[in-house]
Design brief:
By secondary structure, the protein is an alpha+beta fold. It has helices at residues 3-12, 17-42, 47-88, 116-124, 145-154, 163-168, and strands spanning 99-105, 108-114, 127-131, 140-144, 160-161. A hairpin with an 8-residue loop joins strand 3 (127-131) and strand 4.
Length: 189
């Protein structure tokens, strides 16, 4: 009851002080009970749902840990490969000794200055071209074939060009008019 109604009922004598206090306490208890019920409803989901959420969160955490571990391992492999390439690379010739060696990698024609000896080794398959980094735009260098095989074992996606392997898979088309004419590897333009 509101205070105005309470005071009016007291003045007219329809209710006494005891009844007013009793009504007030009942109203208070009802409000307190409703608040408790709301609190019980909002305490959280059922125990089964909470366990499912914890399990889902743990699975997400495990997945993130696996991905991070894979990234760390990949970085370590790439560091090992970079070290292999840098320790086994042939020097880049300059001056009259430099011949341009052209090769195809990733749909692009690239060139690298090499000596006549390195050109023969590349044609024979005793040498290969390896990228200095995972990104081919960083450049290529000549390395021994054994090193190229070790790099391929560690990471098959690393940019490697082994000219002797490339030629075996390139069969001329049956209707090619120049299929009988073989282009030598050491052709100079």
């Amino acid at each position: 009851m509101s205070d105005d109604l309470r005071s009016q009922l007291l003045k007219t004598g329809l209710v006494d002080e005891k009844q007013v206090r009793q009504a007030k306490s009942q109203k208070h208890k009802a409000q307190k009970g409703n608040a408790k019920k709301k609190k019980d409803r909002n305490t959280g989901p059922e125990p089964g749902v909470a366990e499912a959420r914890k399990a889902e969160q743990a699975e997400r955490s495990r997945q993130k840990n696996r991905e991070q571990q894979e990234r760390t391992e990949r970085r370590a492999r790439h560091a090992q490969i970079r070290e292999l390439v840098s320790t086994h690379l042939a020097p880049i010739p300059t001056g009259d000794a430099a011949l341009d060696y052209h090769f195809q990698q990733g749909g692009q024609i690239r060139h690298l200055p090499v000596t006549a000896d390195l050109q023969k080794r590349l044609a024979d398959g005793r040498a290969a071209l390896a990228g200095l980094d995972v990104r081919p735009e960083k450049g290529f260098r000549v390395i021994p074939r054994e090193t190229a095989d070790r790099i391929r074992e560690r990471d098959p996606e690393w940019p490697l060009v082994i000219p002797a392997e490339d030629e075996t898979g390139s069969e001329p088309a049956p209707d090619d008019p120049y299929k009988d004419y073989v282009v030598p590897d050491d052709l100079m333009w």
